[in-house]
């Protein structure tokens, strides 16, 4: 330690001014390069060898353009201070630039007070050294922070370099892939060139083919001209033959008329006899006048075909038409020819499977008959074709696609036939053997087959869900004709029968389910003017019905009318119900609306207040139940306007009537009048074209229980499908 403290160079205190500045000038260049004047200014000013003015001059002179020049100028200013300037400079180097101090003086730097020259007091020196050390520590910390930042920066740069190297590696791979794709593209271009060459060859061959086609078209044009010329010659020949045929036909008609005239003169006119009971009730036909030739006596060639709007009319002579062909289908799909016997007359005229039979005309017992089978059931079509003997005329419509679709459905058992219609049962039938359904009066059935396999007098039918078009239990029921023959005629239409509905119709002796038998009206009928039909009150086993789905709120009609009008006032106070109000009409308005069937009922006969169709529609459009204080006559008028009321008949007994005695007296009515009204209106319900709900007398005991039951009944009836019969008149 003693050896390290021994100075290696001369003692600065022992050197003279000249020696000190000579030592400094020898190292002037090194000092100018390594010293920053701003670092030494605080110490030099502290020892008072430089002033603030000197510092400003060094830093602000324009000719001192760099740090070396400023340091050199600072040395010149210190030279003017003599020995103190040199000592102060060297001590500043020892404090701030220890390495440079060692190079200049050859001595190691030290901060011991004895090493300083005494230009500054000890306390001031200590204070300065402390500030210098603190500044150096701050600079050291800043240097360390900067080193940390630089280290972080170096790490980030190293990561970037690694990423760049990875990218460079990827680029090399991409470059290799690019070279491979370029080689592949070159090979594809060579293939494209080959394809272009082949395409050119094809174009050449195509051009040659077009030239050949042009030559063929020229030859074909010549052949067409020859064919047109031949066709014109054939048409001229056909026209000449048809003219000759028309002449012969006119002569034949004249001869036939002459024959019938002679027959009429020779034999008296036979009187019409009543149809035998074995004759079907639906075969009511008009006689053809014997003074004129029946339409089917005018014969034509067996293979003559006349096309009228996709309907083919074929004429043929046969003994029994149904023995030569069979049919499938029904009223929903249409009746189609299914099989034709080869070699028969039907086969000879060109009848083939897949044609729909639209109409058949034939002659039977000097009567001209026309059967329209376009919408007929399979049972009706089979019966109609079974009646055809002798000369007949069939109208056929080609519908091969529909026929094949029907056969596919029959094979898949999705349907049993082409029949589909709904009927209302008018009498109760017990269950029988072999799957016969047990049905009640007013049940709705869906008939799906009018000729099930192995039966002739049964229908395949299903019971229908009351609230939707859904088939339930299925089975067989007797057909219409079988029930007509088995049931006894009803003598008294007003007699009470619990399980039978008596129907009134204007079609006496006609099956209302069959619509195909049309009558050929002729000018020379034996009976002169047709006799108007008479009303027939009879038992019709079934009647056709169609489903309707009315809006949410249907009008309410309560019967008997005396009780209904009393209950309407109570129901009108409920939410969702409103009483139908009458309208006051002038005479002209009353006449106009009456002509349009818009007047449902008059409040008083001959008065100007009426319940009209518009008043009902006004309430229904509000989404409310319209309470109708009307009678049964309004039902058909409402149906014509697609308004279907809920009809509820409330059964009344003497016991029930006594419960309502006080309320009846308030309205000026008596118990006897209520019972009489109920008895008179109940038979009229069978004449309604729709179903109704009947409440038994024992289902209610007083007005409150009756109103509670009515709310439930109205809600149930509102959900049901409305079934309406067609007009039987």
Task: List the defining traits of the structure above.
729 residues, alpha+beta, Death Domain, Fas, Pdz3 Domain, Rossmann fold, 3 domains, six-stranded antiparallel β-sheet, 21 helices, 24 strands, elongated, disordered N terminus
How does this structure look, described?
- InterPro entries: CARD, DEATH-like_dom_sf, Guanylate_kin-like_dom, P-loop_NTPase, PDZ, PDZ_sf.
- GO terms for molecular function: CARD domain binding.
- This is Caspase recruitment domain family, member 14.
- With 729 residues, this protein is α+β, with helices and mostly antiparallel strands.
- The protein has three domains: 2-120, Death Domain, Fas (Orthogonal Bundle), CATH 1.10.533; 268-548, Pdz3 Domain (Roll), CATH 2.30.42; 556-724, Rossmann fold (3-Layer(aba) Sandwich).
- The protein contains 21 helices and 24 strands.
- The strands form six sheets. The chain has a six-stranded antiparallel sheet with strand order 1-2-7-5-6-13, with no helix packed on it. It has a six-stranded antiparallel sheet with strand order 11-10-9-8-15-24. It has a five-stranded parallel sheet with strand order 17-21-16-22-23.
- It is elongated and about 185 Å long.
- It starts with a helix and ends in a 5-residue tail after the last strand.
- Mean pLDDT is 80; it is low at 1-7, 268-309, 488-497 and 521-535.
